[in-house]
Amino acid sequence: MAHEILIVDDEPDIRTLIEGILSDEGYETRQAHNSDSAIAAFRQRRPSLVILDIWLQNSRLDGLGILEALHVEEPQVPVIMISGHGTIETAVQAIQQGAYDFIEKPFKSDRLLLIVSRALEAAKLRRENSELRLRAGPETDLLGGSAPVGQLRGAIEKVAPTGSRVLITGPAGAGKEVAARMIHARSRRADGPFLVLNCATLNPARFEEELFGIEAGADASAQPRRAGVLERAHGGTLLLDEIADMPLETQGKIVRALQEQGFERIGGGTRVKVDVRVLSTTNRDLQAEIAAGRFREDLYYRLAVVPLRVPALRERREDVPLLARHFIGRSTETTGMARRELSEDALAAMQAYDWPGNVRELRNLIDWLLIMAPGEAREPIRPDMLPPQVGAAAPAVLKLDRSSEIMTLPLREARELFERQYLEAQLLRFGGNISRTANFVGMERSALHRKLKFLGVHAEDRASPAGTVGNA
Questions:
Q1: Class of residue 137 by CB neighbours under 10 A (exposed 0-12, middle 13-18, buried 19+)
Q2: Total Cβ atoms within 10 A of residue 318
Q3: Taking CA atoms, which of 72, 97, 291, 309 is between 20 and 30 Å from 368?
Q4: What is the tens place of the pLDDT at every residue in 1-10?
Q5: Going by C-beta distance under 8 Å and a sequence separation of 6 or more, which residues neighbour residue 310?
Q6: Which residues, renumbered to this chain, carry the PTM 4-aspartylphosphate (predicted)?
Q7: For position 29, what pLDDT does the model report?
């Protein structure tokens, strides 16, 4: 996605010269010749950067006045000041008022391009740091080697570069936002902003303010213009998280905004044009919501150009060990707690659990274990240290009280009981995948089939659940 730069200078030749230099490097440009046209262009669509002359003839405000006005409205947009009559005092004043840098005319094209590049990179870093502070290190990749995750990852790789809108469905805590961040990171908009609007937590009365922003009042200092997420996401991606919770009235307005790629701020009359890729997530059945009259069908079809589904953690149990070890590593790095390992028995017990809270519940469990599990750091975490609701799902072969039953049986029956429970536990942890189970237990696939049949263990040889990727 090309950066758009607003050039403000009263001399047409200078504007044309700068436009030519920037266009040759792949930048998009717009021009303004005085304060009114500059502020109007800025408000119509937020640029990535502004190149602003200090001295402007026939202009209500000079460059420093324009800089102050732009900084009040959107301080994150970098501004490079230029002047043919500059002094050290003027340059210092411009920097103090928020300009990124000052260039004196005449300037070399290489120097201009270098400063533009640095200013855009600095703005990107500020945006990323701000997002990191708000979201404490977001995940940007789906972890796991299971077939469902592999299919989803492959679908993301295909759709990310296209620019199509994507509707991501799946249960709460499964990783829908992670999938959205992957799409953005692998798109042509990766250098642009990624903004999230959580429809489930936002007060319904504030939806339109957050989406479209508010126009400045008569006294701009008392009520400055505030950009909404659609405007701030220009050139990047906007994620509408849990879209089913958006009020019906707002749904109608977002349909129009998506159709026209533009909108009016609340209290304003100027049409704001934006270029934003919209992704959305939901844990509800939107077709049922449409039938119940709670969701607009036209909005559904605008959002679900490409529908993807994130599988529940119970559909990819074999990923639990990898995810658990990843969360242990991340928690020890961020909190300074001592690292502990999970025993294979504990991992098997965790793989048997259904995880109603999905990956989010697993991450919280790891934090709890690192804090609350008894024993020293060098001791592995055992099944009996797991919370009751997780330990209760453990396969019978992992429960110590089964030993008393085995001791009452003849050797052959005891061996069959152990083998049955052992193989049931291994099938459970590998999601019923016979090939992976056979590889882990060290048997030929056909031999495992025969053993399971002999022991009366029912197993469906499946690689992955159906419907992981496709229509919601």
A1: exposed
A2: 20
A3: 309
A4: 679 999 999 9
A5: 152, 168, 169, 170, 171, 174, 175, 176, 179
A6: 53
A7: 95
